[in-house]
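Minutes, structural biology subgroup

Action item carried over from last meeting: produce the structure token record for diacylglycerol kinase (ATP) (Haploplasma axanthum). EB confirmed the sequence was re-checked against the source entry. Recorded below for completeness.
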Amino acid sequence: MDIILYNPLSRNGKNIKLVNKLKKKLNKKGRIVDTINLLEITDIELFVTTNQNIDRFIIIGGDGTLNRLVNGIRGIDIKPGIFLYKAGTGNDFIRSLPGRKKGLIDVKDYLKKLPKVSFNNREMLFLNGVGLGLDGLVCHKVNNSKYKKNKFNYFRHALEAFREFVPRVSKVFIDGLEIQVDKTWFVSVMNSKYFGGGMKIAPKASRLNDTLEVVIIKKVPKFILLTIFPTIYLGWHTKLKKYVNIYKGKEVKVVFDQGVIMQIDGDDFTDIKEITAIK
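Output recorded by EB:
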């Protein structure tokens, strides 16, 4: 038996059609399938532990859906397989995996030993990365936009954020090494290459490594930043070493002089001054 878990808000609300299409396809193969709206599950831990005898959990959604799920089932030994069917708007998690990117993708092994981030007396696992500063502000605008989530509107809100954001003073500690940054545009702590729906912010990062990649964008004149931003899709921004610094480490602490917006796998959190990420 399969249980399809879906987020009805993912993919701008178009997931219901995908759910019905996938269910019919699996039924034709003789499989028994149940569908569950994730938003209607009040206790995800209880739900998972009472469904340990099925064959597969199939998740239809994007990075945000998967992030909330892995944090909800943290610490549970799950016996069924866990498969993902791409249906988000960013899909950076699937994009970073080796092999095929279509159909049902077995992701269970990639959900083990995820890095964690601590902030404001909370602790969360993350799949792709954590970003503070301009990166967080862009996600905040996209998540609260009246427009649909797509690349065009991502750039629309990125331009708005460029105009509004004022670079901050920060300190970044990587395995004990302290880095003082006077004009910080953003700091991204990455477990894989991508953020923002395909932007290759950390080209050498891999979720298979035992370290995180830390990308610091600093001291960039605003007009130059506008030209750098599109190059991130190809990873070319790393050549501008005057403005872009990349480090590796197992434990990363980021401290800002005042609260900024942070994003974790595309979900935003406001007024964050300090985080610690560990892999």
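Discussion: The chain has a mean pLDDT of 92.
Next step: EB to file the record with the rest of the batch.
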